[in-house]
User: Fold this.
Amino acid sequence: MSVTSKALVATLALCGLGVAACGGTSGGTGAGPAQDGGPASGTASPASALSAQTATPAPKTPATGGSVPAEPLKGKVIVIDPGHNGQNYKHPAEINKQVNILTEKKACDTTGTATDSGYSEAAFTWDVSQRLAKILRSRGATVELTRPNNSGVGPCITERAAIGNKAHANAAISIHGDGAPAKGHGFHVIMPKKINGPVDPVVKASSKLGLAVRDAYKAGTGVAYSTYIGSQALDYRNDLGGLNLSTVPKIFIECGNMRNAGDAAKFQSPAFRQKAAVALANGLQNYLK
Assistant:
């Protein structure tokens, strides 16, 4: 579903202004390697600050005539995985516990990264996820998040995948902010590879989901494709437990690089976070329609 310019302007204006981030690159390079799970600090803007008016733009009438359903996602189940958790950094023993992701063993979770000013990835992902959930529910979807707040620990990457599987989600998305070297900027989408495991049957569908989200996020936010990883903002990996263990179509999105000053400034803007949430909702809807 496309977003009219007037509706988008109204959405951003109502969000207000203010300042309120998985880390790094494929293959383990960069300041904060992208994991299912840098220092965490900061708190997210409360979801209650969002009015129902900002939740979703008015649907457009298709060129072929007729009206767009008021709840275009009715009957669809979507699982949102806000990366990391706000108190992970206080519980190193718990989050460093090794879990089996089939291709290797990894930490249960990680702290995530942060901007130079201390705005944490965990706070960013929680805020965007809350906004995204509100929009999707207004469009009729059943939405489940993998964590209930930003003041806890975990869950482990294995459990995050299991939540989507148990919900029989039509689509699942894990939201992150990268922790790559500061000179790199832009966003990218991570999709699963076949591993002779549970994700294999949904690899093709996950790629389709990834393309839909990439296109909508670029169109809706104006954030550039990543300059430091992937091709055309697309990256395929087999070392992320949240993907390896998923039996439903699932992707990760690194919404930008929190270590880059330009991307970090965007992340710290509530208006941008609302714009990002609308774009992600449109990508999910485009995939599910």
The mean pLDDT is 84. DSSP finds eight helices and eight strands in the chain. The radius of gyration is 17 Å. Helices lie at 5-15, 92-95, 121-138, 157-166, 203-221, 241-244, 261-267, 270-288.
